[in-house]
Structure formats: C-alpha cells, structure tokens
Amino acid sequence: MIKFKWIHSNHPCCLWVFYFGFCSGFPLLLTSSTLQAWMADQGYSSVQIGWLSALGLPYVLKWSWAPILDRSRWSHNKWIIGLQYIMGIALWVLSIFKCYSIGWIAAAMIIAMGSATQDLAIDAYRMDLLTPENDRWGAACHTLGYRLGMMIAGGGLLIIADHLGWSRVYAMVAMIFCLGAWVSAQSPRCQKTSMALTDTSSMWVRAWHHLSAVNQLIGWLCFILLYRVVDAAVANFGAVFLLKHCSLTLTEVGFLYKILGMSLLVFGALFGTILLKYVSLVHALRWGAILQCLSCIPYMYLAHLDHPVQSMVVFFAVGFECCAAGLAGTILMVLMMRWCHPNYRVTHFAWLSAIVALPRMVLGPVLGYAIDWMGWEMMWGIISVLAMGVMVLSMVLHSIPNTQHEADESEGFVLSEPNLFK
C-alpha cells in the first residue's frame, strides 16, 4: 500500500484543507463572474458588468478587520460555521430579487463580506493545521479545492441556470451553504497560536515589523500584485468573452470550465507541487509567470477571429489558462504561507491576499471601458503586456544581491530570505 506522509489515518489534515479550499473558492465567483454571467444573459452592457467587480472590495479591505479574528476567543472553526450560515441566508435573499435591483446588490455585498471574512478564518485554520513539512502538499490541496469550488460556481451553475433559471440556482446554493456549515462543524479543532493584544494598532505595527523582514519587500509586494493579473482578467471577463464574442451557450461555457478546465487545473496544481521539489521557489514563481503570460495568446487569437470561432482554439485557450492558473496559484500560496508569522497569521495572510485580490476588483471597471472603446483583442493584449512585466520584475528581484534580514528573534521566529525562497 502506498503511504503519503501528508495524510494520516487519524488526522486527514490535507483532506480538510481541500474541503475548506472548496468553501473558500465557491462563494468567490458567486459574487463575481457568475453574477456577471447572469447580467450578460439579461443583456446588460460591458460597463455595467465591469462595475459589478466592485463587490470585490471586501477582499481588498479584509485586512482591516483581520486582527479581530487574531484576538478573538472564538476558534477559527466557529467563525467559518457562523459565516457560512450568514452567506446561506444572504444567497436565498438574493435569489428572490430582480437582477441588478437594490436588494439584489445589497445581498451580494453581504455575501462578499461573509466570503472575505471566511477566507481569513480558513487561511488561519489551514496554517494552524499544516506543518512546514507538508505545506507544499497542503497548498496543492487548497488550490485544488479552491479551484474546484470556482469551477463549480463558474461552470456547473451556468449549466444548471441554462435549464432552471438563475433564481432557482441561487436558492439551491443557499441550501448547499447551510449543509456545508454542518460539515464544517465536524472539522478537527486546532490550538490557536495567535497573540492576544489589547490594542489593535499595536498588533498591526508588530505584524508589519515581522512582515517587513523580507528583503526587497516593496518589489515582492508589487510582484504579488501583478502575478495573478491574467487570472483576474479571466475571472472578470472570461465567461462574458465566451458568451458574447464567441457566441457560446451557458451550457457550453459551463462544460468548458467544469470538465476541461478542472481537469487541467488539477494537472497544473500537481505539477506546481512537484516543481517545488526540484527548483527554488523563486524559479518556480518565474515559471508560473511565463505560463500565465503565454496563456493570453490563445485569447488574443480568439478575439481576432471572425465567427464562427474554432472549437479547438476555444478548448486550448480555456485549458491552457486553467493549467497555468493551477500551477501559479499553488506556488503563490506556498510563498504567502511562508511569509506569515505564527502569531499574526490572520493579519499577514489578509494583507497578502488583499494584494492578490486588488487586480480582480480594479481591473473590472477598467477592462469594461477598454472593451467598449478598443475591443476584446486590445484588452487581451494589455493583459499580456502586464504579464510580461511580471516576468521582468521577477528577474530583476532575483538579480539583486541578498543580505540576511531577520525579524526579532525574541518570539522564536526568524524570517530570512534564504529560508523563504528555498
């Protein structure tokens, strides 16, 4: 019998990491691309659809309430369970309102707030559960679960909506969330390692002190900001592009993302995990940037083609982008986990994930106007240029001589660049 050291019969930590990764990725698209597909199906303009990405604001600002979870007496499990019930209720409320009405937007905001806060609790729970020895496999399991949730929300629900309608789909998802809260209640409890400080500002200062121990911090933060720009563009307008420009049906788009996309995303995530065993984290990040840049080319070609669009080109474009996203997401997750101090896990990961989420929110309105003014081909060209800038930035950062820069050792934690990027 083959035994994996990252799964034990008495404590299947990576299975729970996979499950909570699914819980984290599933609601993300419920308030982004799936709602945008709903609007596209109702005939709204690209500009109106683009402005819906403002619902991603809680993912960018969640760092501001992250210390509440760090200092809370509640376990991370309790936060997750409570938030899943809240999102389930909000999803049911959203299902009864007309698309783009005030009540519809308000319910979507509550779901986004709950999802962003749930991400804080899930990220902290995952880091409590995993050890440095299995963080690579843990990152792969989280990425697989996260992407599976996104694929079902962005693909499977489109297929169902094509037959049942959008309101019934969101009412069904509301019931799934309530069931998921019961499953989350069965997860193992972990000892919280967070620090109880009396002053939130003190926690932010000390958390920043430890995070700033990384060499070339500003450069690496800019790198993280732009690293997932291709993924952000696809998340905002991938389904809309296939529906409007390629004239695919909801069922066809759902099939592409759920069947083809998920299969290649699993391959990409596993390949990223294996890659980290043979190359340094810096080189793995560079390979992820290269693949994401190349994944823009098929979309540019599709935008250039006249109708009817070739099916094989569509398959290749979606499949290659999902494979690159799976690899890059796994590698970036390992980088972010290694940056987090045990006493400030929620706050550190909230800062880093907020930076990752920023392009998803900002690019929506900008690309919406760009599509109306310049067309789809130019939009994908802009994204590819930004992706090329990430490759250049990674080479510049790697060429700068490194000097050992350590945080305060008084709390038993040292963060140095050789350890971070090995």
Give a quick set of tags describing it.
422 residues, mainly alpha, Growth Hormone, Chain: A, 76% helix, globular, disordered N terminus
Describe the structure.
The protein has 422 residues and is mainly alpha-helical. It has a single domain, classed as MFS general substrate transporter like domains (Growth Hormone, Chain: A). The chain has 19 helices and no strands. Helix 6 runs antiparallel to helix 9 and helix 15 runs antiparallel to helix 18. The longest helix is centred in the middle third of the chain and has 30 residues. The chain starts with 12 loop residues before the first helix and ends with a helix. The N terminus is likely disordered.
Q: Main beta sheet, described? A: none
The CATH architecture can be named as Up-down Bundle
Number of helices: 19
Can you identify the CATH class? Mainly Alpha
Structural category: mainly alpha
**What order do the helices and strands follow?**
HHHHHHHHHHHHHHHHHHH
The overall average pLDDT, rounded, is 80
Number of strands: 0
Detail the poorly predicted runs.
1-11, 402-419
As for the CATH topology, it is: Growth Hormone, Chain: A
Please name the fourth-level CATH homologous superfamily: MFS general substrate transporter like domains
Q: What's the number of structural domains?
A: 1
Instruction: State the shape.
Output: globular
How much helix is in the residues? over 70%
Radius of gyration: 21 Å
Q: Kindly estimate the percentage of residues that lie in beta strands according to DSSP.
A: under 5%
Distance between the termini: 31 Å
